[in-house]
Write a sequence for this structure.
């Protein structure tokens, strides 16, 4: 493989990360983005002799042995239709999109028959160290020799390889990402609707709240299309996001009606379905000391009551969908492991869970916050159900702008949180 060349079509944040990692490992890389970005990319990568920036995907496709399409899931068909016919004879092609169904369909429709298809998906963002993180490899249409070549190239990332089909990938990413993203997007939209910077409010500082705030800001600091594509184009994700909004709505109605018996029965049944089988196999992923370590604000002397509707609805959703989140730990994102960690923290501390149930029924202090959260969850679900990319983008970008001043702090703290939870889960 001495003269093996990797091509990257799409030099967004993830494409750039791949170009840097692969070239640092000694691989030659041809890369491109839209033609208007050509000169800027040439300048940005001028010091990297292993990386050649080309004007367009035709040139990348003709001169590369493994071409990775690193474009939005919503655009994959259009881009592959444009550049796929130029693919070098006998080359290997893959994609880095978060939803494999449209990606594989595009490859089958537009690539020459003599081209092998080996796709991949790094299950983390571009600012996370890929070492030890899951990397999905999909041998869709390829010889074992070509699959081995791709695996050898990507081994330089230091990631943990997970072997799936495209369908298995979409099912698992829906289970581990779709509802998680919906919860954080809804929290951010609710805080935005109330014009709240949560780190300035005692209720949202310390413990579980630190995870909610930092990860919400982390999501809104990324590109909107990453989350829109996974939610709207993945049929499994649509179903789960709808169920999450229904779980939020059902629980909120029980809270408003003061129906403690039914509320408690539903919450504890969901907790038993999701967590009981794990008690003898797993220690709690996150403890108080870990949760309190990462804060954007000053922790109050005494904890402020919180019903954690977002967490209760998450476990209710998992239960109703028959999802056991631990089944997918091998290919879970850092974000998902943190979210699972805080839900588990709540449900495996009986006294804390009982107090949360009591607060949900008896304490009306934050009903307006819960109302906005319910509106937000239903709004995101509607966008996904109708396949409305523009509404999704508008909702995302307006809230992104609201929180933008704190993105740098949240990213720094969020990276530390990611490392901590990864170390904890590796011990299990």
């Amino acid at each position: 493989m001495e003269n093996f060349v990797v091509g990257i079509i799409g030099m967004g944040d993830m494409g750039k990360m791949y170009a840097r990692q692969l070239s640092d490992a000694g691989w030659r890389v041809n890369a491109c983005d839209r033609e208007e970005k050509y000169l800027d990319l040439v300048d940005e990568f001028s010091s990297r002799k292993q990386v050649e920036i080309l004007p367009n995907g035709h040139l990348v496709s003709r001169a590369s042995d493994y071409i990775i399409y690193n474009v939005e899931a919503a655009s994959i068909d259009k881009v592959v239709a444009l550049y796929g016919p130029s693919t070098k004879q006998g080359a290997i092609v893959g994609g880095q999109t978060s939803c494999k169904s449209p990606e594989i369909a595009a490859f089958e429709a537009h690539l020459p028959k003599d081209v092998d298809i080996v796709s991949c998906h790094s299950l983390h963002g571009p600012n996370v160290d890929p070492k030890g993180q899951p990397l999905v490899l999909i041998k869709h249409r390829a010889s074992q020799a070509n699959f081995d070549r791709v695996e050898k190239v990507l081994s330089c990332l230091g990631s943990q390889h997970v072997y799936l089909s495209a369908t298995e990938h979409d099912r698992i990413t829906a289970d581990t990402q779709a509802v998680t993203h919906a919860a954080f997007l809804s929290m951010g939209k609710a805080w935005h609707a109330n014009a709240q910077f949560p780190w300035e409010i005692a209720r949202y500082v310390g413990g579980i709240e630190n995870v909610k705030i930092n990860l919400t800001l982390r999501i809104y600091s990324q590109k909107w299309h990453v989350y829109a594509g996974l939610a709207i184009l993945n049929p499994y994700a649509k179903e789960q996001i709808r169920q999450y909004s229904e779980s939020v709505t059902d629980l909120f109605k029980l809270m408003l009606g003061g129906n403690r018996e039914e509320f408690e029965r539903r919450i504890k049944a969901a907790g038993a379905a999701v967590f009981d089988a794990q008690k003898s196999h797993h220690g709690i992923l996150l403890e108080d000391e870990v949760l309190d370590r990462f804060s954007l604000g000053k922790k109050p002397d005494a904890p402020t009551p919180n019903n954690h509707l977002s967490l209760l609805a998450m476990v209710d959703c998992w239960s109703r969908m028959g999802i056991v989140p631990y089944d997918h730990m091998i290919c879970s994102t850092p974000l998902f492991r943190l979210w699972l960690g805080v839900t588990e923290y709540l449900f495996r501390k009986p006294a804390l869970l009982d107090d949360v149930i009591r607060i949900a029924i008896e304490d009306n202090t934050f009903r307006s916050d819960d109302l906005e959260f319910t509106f937000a969850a239903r709004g995101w679900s509607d966008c996904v159900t109708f396949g409305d990319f523009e509404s999704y983008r508008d909702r995302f970008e307006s809230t992104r702008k609201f929180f933008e001043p704190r993105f740098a702090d949240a990213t720094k703290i969020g990276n530390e949180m990611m490392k901590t939870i990864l170390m904890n889960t590796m011990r299990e």
